[in-house]
Amino acid sequence: MAKRKREQQPQETASEGLLPQKKFYRQRAHANPFSDHSLDYPESPRAIDWAPHYPAFAASGKVPEFADFPDTLMLGLEIRVQVSQYVQDRITALRVTNATQSSDSTPGFQNVSIVRANAMKFLPNYFTKHSLSALFFLFPDPHFKSRKHKARIISPTLLAEYAYVLRPGGIVYTITDVRDLHEWMKEHLTNFPLFEPVDEDSLRKEGKGPIIDAVYHSTEEGKKLSMQQAVLKTFPDAQATYRFTNRNKATLFSRQCAERFRTAVSHFSFLALTQEEREWLQKACPFLEPSYLEFLSGFRYKPEQVDIQFVPADDQGDDTKGVSGQIYITITGPWVEAIMWEVPLMACLSETYFQTVDKDWDYEGQADLAFEKGKTLLSHGCAFSEFGTRRRRSYRTQEIVVENLVKASEVTKGPGRLTGTSNVHLARLYDLEPIGTIAHEWFMGVAALRGYENANAKALKLWEEVYESSGTALIALTDTFTTGAFFREFTEDGPRAQRWTGLRQDSGDPFTFGPRVKEVYESLGIDPATKLLVYSDSLSTEKAVKIREQCTSLGLAKASFGIGTHFTNDFKSLSSNRQQKSKALNIVIKLAQVNDKPCIKLSDDLTKTTGDKATVDYVIDLYHLPKS
């Protein structure tokens, strides 16, 4: 395979919009840090010309600080030839692309660069004393064998150098997926006299925390995996577009929030399914076929598929740009890839917003609150799952919630039960069942590709073709084109209604849904007590208990509840002395088109209607629905 020699200075030669592909940059995973690899090093930091690395900042005299985007410069040091070449080519391409898409005076990615270097031997050659504000060690070589531990990048000798280049108060961040290496780094940093543990909560509140938490822990909901598999098998070549909507236009984002969010999204490409995670999925989700798990192992997020725009609400002209405004997000790419962006993007944006814009809150009382909610649901006989990934306040919030729901389930005696979580990552950590059903986008995409007439029946048929023999529960979502339209098609095929395990309610009045479901099943000669009902629309603990009581009186014994924002974004503002709610973001990302055909959702709540207006009107007429 042909390889290119690494140019020492970055050259802006990438074609506009053309990002490098990793498959052309093959490289051994390990490199010998004790070999100089014939690399050239500056005699001292004063000998370095940073202008070719940061041309947009050449006149400012700035030097790299490894700090938060976009205010200071960041530099990567990588010893491997092809890896450093790939990163440099990617930075160059992103600079060109961003320059054509951004209206900012300094487009994105101008403050990042990379040098091929051996940081273990020549770090002080690049940086003066106390010149860096942070150091990031991202998945360093674990050097598993004991005789190789001396080559680990965290060691007492090297820590002295890191302390030399870091300014007082500077932060060291370490990331690894090897537990032994994590413990090694933690122990050596703790024992070194010039470093002390950091309160990450305080860092996040100050905007200095590891924003990549929002990336590395924004794992997919269970339903995303099952839907990606269905798309892979049914529509592998379809092209899709998703769009973000902020339903509450009074909620404004800051420019800082938008830039941090954009930077976080650029890190998604580093995510990959580990072998340990794959083995766990094989056991926990037997409906995921080996061929799909192989596909998932090779899947990588492509940040170039995500366009993020910040539009100021108070733009004062070219010289004074507004600091508050709206964020617009469009995701475009193969449906089988684009489908995976919705959940982590929403979770990442929410966490970034509450780090940068609304900081009038803290974690006090969150553990007790989640524990008491769990006890209430369990003692009232509710079967429930945690559904709060996409609109959570932060990853830490969701982890607190899941941990304390588990604790509540262990100590509360009653007929209720915690059935699982939609967050696959947390399901693995807490030994829970990963929960997922079909989402609206499946019905929306099928309707656009196969026609809106009898779209519900078409979507159910295709889903059955993928999962009928898998043994997984078949739970139909009823409200994509209104529940009335769904039931008209559902009742036309009694055997299908019998095959499907149950139904999910996600909009409209939940207290009219149960009686209606009972009537539908009884009209088909099906015992409604044998069918599962899942309620998931803006539930609170109190509402779930009341619905459970109604279902019991109706003989609907298998009611279940998917509770999201009420679990993972239930906070009170500090400025009100915890008397007023700190509101969650009201945001969605919906499928807008597939193969250039518009996708729409009507729902049983008119405020949730999304999509092309002409198509909305057409479907309303097709299904003989009342117009608003």
Automatic annotation (TrEMBL):
Residues 1-22 are annotated as: Disordered. GO terms for molecular function: nicotinate phosphoribosyltransferase activity; tRNA (guanine(46)-N7)-methyltransferase activity; tRNA binding. Keywords: Ligase, Methyltransferase, Nucleus, Phosphoprotein, Pyridine nucleotide biosynthesis, RNA-binding, S-adenosyl-L-methionine, Transferase, tRNA processing, tRNA-binding. Transmembrane segments: none annotated. Pathway: Cofactor biosynthesis; NAD(+) biosynthesis; nicotinate D-ribonucleotide from nicotinate: step 1/1. It comes from the Eukaryota. NCBIfam families: NAPRTase. Catalyzes the synthesis of beta-nicotinate D-ribonucleotide from nicotinate and 5-phospho-D-ribose 1-phosphate at the expense of ATP. This is Nicotinate phosphoribosyltransferase. It comes from Candolleomyces eurysporus.
